[in-house]
Design brief:
single chain, about 80 residues, alpha+beta, CBS domain Like, two-stranded antiparallel sheet, two-stranded antiparallel ribbon, about 40% helix, about 20% strand, globular
Length: about 80
């Protein structure tokens, strides 16, 4: 049994970040990733995917975006 409703848990633990779409060049907000999940992916060197709804394009975030994300997670 959870103390929070699913919506409350998602709001309190997710960390949106932005990534530039390689097709259109727009910064797209990437919602829905838990802070802990992002930290684990970064620590393991695993790919982190992003998505652009305008282009219907998926891509792996860049090295620079990974560094920015790691810095944001450490705050």
């Amino acid at each position: 049994m959870h103390a929070n409703t699913p919506g409350e848990a998602a709001i309190s633990t997710t960390m949106p970040f932005t990534s530039e779409c390689p097709r259109c060049g727009h910064e797209r907000v990437q919602p829905g990733h838990a802070r802990e999940e992002l930290a684990q992916l970064l620590g393991a060197g695993a790919e982190i995917e992003a998505y652009c709804s305008g282009c219907d394009q998926h891509w792996t975030i860049s090295v620079e975006e990974r560094a920015d994300l790691a810095r944001d997670l450490s705050r």
